[in-house]
Amino acid sequence: MIDKNNRIIVANWKMNLNLAETRDLSAKMVEKFKDFNEGTVVVCPNHISLSETKNILKDSPIKLGSQHVYWESKGAYTGEISTEMLLEAGCEYVIIGHSERRKYVLENYEMVNKMVKAVINTEKLIPIVCIGENWDERKTDKVDFVLVDQLQQALGGVNIVGNQQVIIAYEPIWAIGSGNAMEPSEAEYSHKIIKLALNGMFGMPTVNRSFRIIYGGSINSSIAKDFTNIDYLDGLLVGGASLDAEEFYKVAKIIL
Ligand code: PGA
What we know:
The protein is an alpha/beta fold and 256 residues long. Helix content is 41%, strand content 15%. It has ten helices and eight strands. An eight-stranded parallel β-barrel has the order 1-2-3-4-5-6-7-8, surrounded by six helices. Helix 5 (109-122) packs across helix 7 (143-155), helix 7 crosses helix 8 (184-202) and helix 8 (184-202) crosses helix 9. The model has no long low-confidence stretch (mean pLDDT 96).
């Protein structure tokens, strides 16, 4: 377990809110978190809402994140968005390789690797790299192998320098949006595997300085407490429960 003030909670609003709804929820979050100074709170709206959300968040401790980025910096890449554009919109974080993107738009870890490198090269944006096993992999005892393999593919050739931070979001695919979070003890086991794999790849001093490991998958305020005392957990990535300001605030208060 690391210092609580280094913990982070990330709201992933996915494609759930239009611009008016994003404005409304952002304003409610600003109000809720106005005197909050624990850890780091991040919200990730859709791309067209980023700039407006940034304006709404401007005097608040809440940080802005994107749900996706492309690896090239400029050019003929219809529909994509660059790191430079995200920085321009005020983003400090970016989710990379969410399992929904891997499932619905066929992102793979080769692409994730390019995105991680592009983000790290900015020396400003912090990547939130998603990994996690599916149900079949869990049932057939492949979790350790899958997590190590995904980390190696996502982070192979990545060079961590200076103050660069990287967040690994462990999201067992079967737990996302299912209403059934993972047992905290099982999450702790996976976080330990991730930590050991990272130590092997980057060395313990770099991992302790630069990496945080967070859990995502059906977290809400009634179960968040069970995740407060597990080892190697530096925060949470919250989907459904982040669409309600009061509920998200309750989770943040518990975990941060
Ligand atoms: P959930 O989503 O909290 O609704 O399960 C988490 C995520 O996909 O990031």
